[in-house]
Design a protein that fits this description.
This protein has 65 residues and is mainly α. It contains three helices and three strands, in the order E-H-E-E-H-H. A three-stranded antiparallel sheet has the order 1-3-2. Strand 2 and strand 3 form a beta hairpin. The radius of gyration is 13 Å and the shape is elongated. The mean pLDDT is 78.
Length: 65
Amino acid sequence: MTRWSTGDLAKATVRTLHRRNEIGLVVASERTPSAHLRYTPDDVRHFYQVRSLRQRPQEVRTGQF
């Protein structure tokens, strides 16, 4: 099964991913023995869903997609 490390997710800083993990918005399913975050394919899909919604904040607030 494929896994991604933090740096493999395009256009997101390590800080952004750690913050989203802390608040529970995008949670990494695994950690390596050295405590690095690891993302499954489902985690990556969820990350991109969250990112796409952040790019359309007005539409999300008004419910107009």
